[in-house]
Amino acid sequence: MLLEVKNLTVRYGAVVALKDVSFGVDEGEIIALIGPNGAGKSTALKAVSGLLKASDGTIDDGEIFFEGKNIKDLRTDQLVTEGLSLVPEGRRVFSTMTVLENLEMGAFTRNDKAAVKNDVENVLAFFSPLKERLYQKAGTLSTGEQQMLAIGRALMLKPKLLLADEPSLGLSPNYVELIFDKFTEINKNGTSILLVEQNAVEALRIAHRAYVFDIGHIVMHDTGKNLAANEEVRRTFLGQRD
User: Fold this and answer.
1) Phi, psi angle pair for 158, to nearest 5°
2) For the whole model, what pTM was predicted?
3) How many domains does the chain have?
4) What does the buried/exposed string (b/e) look like for 198-221 if buried means 16 or more CB atoms within 10 Å of the residue's CB?
5) Local confidence band at 108 (pLDDT 50, 70, 90 cut-offs)
6) N or C: more exposed end of the chain, with fewer CB within 10 A?
7) What is the pLDDT of residues 80-103, one digit of tens each?
């Protein structure tokens, strides 16, 4: 298994955000974490990406393994060198820097300048609207273009596992569909993906498997296709009725 989270318990002060949660990502998979707001799915992603200390969260129990190595106590910058890359909630592009500078910042741990230049070209080919905005300040892009840039910046690290936190947040329906289609392409090109997403319809459309969170626990786990057809999931999380 590429990523294995075992019996994870996370606390914010006196509040237990996750209790005894276990999930995993096999190589080549897209895994979605879905559920209502406050269910703990973003906390789980923060635990994997090393961001809990920055937000005053603490891991009380459990282990996190990546390629068989325990990474629970590694810093975010150390996790990057292990092969994990995060597309953060809200995009968080460097707004005063150009598109090109943002992409180059994505490769900050790399020393292979020729390969970095080639990968910039690959990202621009993959997200073609960015090519026309190459020297434009990132803060002046549309939200959809900023999301493309945030994903492209994360891909510059050439991750083995791409982590994405609420990538559809604030996007128009057209951009939501485009972004999720791009995740499918990224996965087909060899990158595994762990996705936290409020838009369960789109998440389950592309996910090989998904875990349903509710109040700090995982209450259901199945293939994306089966969960999308599950009556309880459709009623509770997809807003659908027969």
Assistant:
1) 55, 60
2) 0.92
3) 1
4) bbbbbbbbbbbbbbbbbebebebe
5) confident
6) C
7) 999 999 998 877 888 899 999 999
